[in-house]
Each structure stands twice: as structure tokens, then as C-alpha cells.
Amino acid sequence: MSEPRLPSWAVVSDERRAHIERVANLVRAWSAELAPTQEELNRWLRATYFHDALKDAASARLRELAQIDWEPEDLLHGPAAASIAESEGESDAQVLDAVRYHSAGYAGWDDVGKVLYMADYLEPGRNFDSNGRESLIRLVAEDFERALFEVARGRVSWVRSRNWPLLPETSEFWNALLESR
Ligand SMILES: [Fe+2]
Ligand SMILES: [Fe+2]
Prior knowledge:
Elements: H1 14-34, H2 38-51, H3 59-66, H4 77-87, H5 93-100, H6 111-122, H7 130-142, H8 144-161, H9 168-179
The structure holds fe (ii) ion (FE2) (2 copies).
């Protein structure tokens, strides 16, 4: 099986493409320590290459594909990408859920959703709290579930700091993480 890459239907700026490659490189770096099978690593990478593939697409197209009424509109690129990926042959429901909910969080994820959610936030091109994020990058291999909790805490705090409502999926995800501690 050839290594996953950005799909032909992607609509991305050069900057976005570079972000997606940094997320993929972080996922590959973790795989050296987490030692997934090649098949599992390919799932992680398929989700990675799909996740922002429509981030720069026109909003009318995103709304049409996403079939979900999330606000703000910026959140629709995940559901829209999952919708095209499925119609183009992706049949792994967990890969699709990883893509669909990558901005929101999702209580029903397996490792593919969790890995993407963490890598998307921790990739080294983002320019906030670089020390804290560097230690979280290391924590993923040492204590995967604790790293996930810390990333979710950072992401939920950020949404709340802007006085944005939490999506129901995000609240469920966060509550499930709290309950599993
Ligand atoms: Fe995204
Ligand atoms: Fe992303």
C-alpha cells in the first residue's frame, strides 16, 4: 500500500499544505515511539491528509457538503472533508469520524481521532506556548491518555476564553475525558 498523501480533491493554500505536512511529520515521529502497525499508521496519515483538505474551499461548497449546522462556519471543513473522503472510497468509519470532528473533539473516537486531534494542535508551526506544547509532544509517547486530556483542556479553554459556546460534541468529549480520569 502506498503512503497516504494529500487527496486530489484538496483545496489548500501553500501555507495550509505546509501545516498538513507538519501534522503528518509529527504523526510519523510519534509512530516511531508508539509503534503502530503499518496499517494503523496509514489510518492516522489518511485522516491527517484529509482533515484540512477543504479548509480553503468556498463556504457555499463546505455548507453543501457538510450537511450539519455548526457555527462558526469555519468548523464545517471537517464534516465536508469527511463527506468527500467517504464518497471517494474511504470506508473506515473511525478515519471519517477523526476528520469530521477534528475541530470539535468526539467521545466515540479510537486512536486515529485522538492522534489527529493532538497532532493538529501540537504541530510545531503554531506559535503559542511553545515550551508547554513541546513537553506535550513528548508526553504523547509516555502517557497517551494524559496528553489527550491536556490537549483537550487547552483547546476547550481557548474556546471558552473567546466566549464561544462549546458544541455538544465538544462537551460530551470533555465530560467523557473527565469521567475516565
Ligand atoms: Fe481543521
Ligand atoms: Fe489542521
